[in-house]
Amino acid sequence: MTIAILVATLAFLALVADLVPGGGSARGVGALAAAGLAGILAATWFLPGTGESFGGAYVDDAFTCYVQRVLLAAGIIASLGSIEHADRVFPRRQGEYYVLLLASLCGMTLLAGARDLVLLVVSFELMGIPLYVLAAMHKTAREGIEGATKLYLTGAVSAAVTMYGLSFLIGATNSTRFDALHGASTPMLALGALLVLAGMAYKVGAIPFHMWVPDTYQAAPTPFVAFLSVAPKVAGFAALSRLFVQAMAPERTAPVLLLVGVITMIGGNLLALPQSNVRRLLGYSGVAHVGLLLVALSLGTVDALGGMLFYLATYVASNMGAFLVVEVVGESDIPAWNGLARRSPALSLSMLLFLLSLGGIPFVAGFWAKLIVFNAAWRAGMGGIVLLGALLAVLGLFYYLKVARAIYMEPTPRPDGPVVARATAFAIALAVAGVVGMGLYPGPVLDSALAAARVIAPAGTDLPAAPTAP
Amino acid sequence: MTLHAVLIVAALMFCIGLFGVLTRRSLVSVVLSVELMANAANINLVAFSRFGNHPWGQAMALFAIALTVAEVVVGLALVILIARTHGSTDADVPSALKG
Lengths: 470, 99
What we know:
The complex is a heterodimer. Chain A is an all-alpha fold. Chain A has helices spanning about 1-20, 30-45, 60-90, 95-115, 115-135, 140-175, 185-205, 210-220, 220-230, 230-245, 250-270, 280-300, 300-330, 340-345, 345-360, 365-380, 385-410, 420-440, 445-455, and strands spanning about 50-55, 60. The model of chain A has no long low-confidence stretch (mean pLDDT about 90).
């Protein structure tokens, strides 16, 4: 609970800091948000967990703590990466930008520990509503508003569908607690669970609820897209694990999750293949990653869920980094990236690392994530899924390396490289550190991911020789 | 009045709302249709609460009403922005993003 309260306090501090007159520019609010989040992240190691709060509606356990750390890291990178963009594009409104970002983050940190349907809905909306506003921050740009409207309309419909589904869950169990869902089995419960899954599938961008993804990614402020492309997914998967694995019996929810996951995995990769715009490419490839994460979720064993949580951490570092490089380059059509390596070698090397991590090449973070998930699928006896996943990973490399090829192999049309602001460079460096660090030394993060997974996974799914990091 | 009668009314309302979302061309009507869908959930919650004799459903409905209001406010603000940037509140006019 402490962490969510601290994030909310920081949001109010940012609001006040924005009101303090200081020469017309509120540039400092971004630095305040980043520094505050870094402090809160450090505090997660020192503050004692509060256990159950509000009569069990919210619980602070290893799972909540892990998810909150990943979310806070995403918040730090997003705040740092936004400073230059906000100051350049909407200098007078940058205070609101960070307040909304922190409010959304507060909803996400609550969602990680929600064990009650009322808290689930409230934190889900606290996470979602600021995102609609943030997507429309470029309020005079036609495309930006169009992307925000698409995000809003699909989001509002999915929120209504989720609420309708939750009403059936409450009706079937006469309670709002997740515990009451355990073991219950009626048609009404199944209907409610399906509707809730549909609503949450929107938030994480699973097929067939992915339509908003590429459009919003293409038109919204880029540093915000970096945040939007990872943080709601982390929080959404936390809520999905709590609801569909911890609360309901996984053997009943697994077939649906597996089906949605496989369709999303195939569809996302195929849709990403013909893209010539880096943002849309990263959008569709994100859909493909969500598919693999859903498959890991459906397996419901300790090593699969630990793999999923570790995957989310690596995805935060690599995808946010990639979007921040897109922000620095400024243009997102692939031909505009031609010969970037000669103009800006450090930036190109970072982008290459992010792309390799997303593609799953050894010794960058994404490789271990994919390996652990495939290993878990193999142990669960799903050889077909492993084969499909490996084939799609090769397909994924094809479109990721399309961008790398433009950067390294094509002649450059102009001599000058893009200018990187200091804060943005620092954010990209943090992402590189995450990708390389988790790639060379995945042990610590993986161990805490597995510890978090043991909270969620049903008893008896912990294999005696769980895969340990090299 | 039985629980089933109320649930059927709510289901009808949900379907009318969904139909409106999919067919209406004016963005304001789309937002209104979403509101219908959200209210179907509220009717469900109150009905379960009334017939199941527990207060959770009504508490949840109160939360849901507040959340829907917050969401609709953002939606209408976006409709105003669309009207400013595109000169129309028609759902078909914004069509620059494709692929």
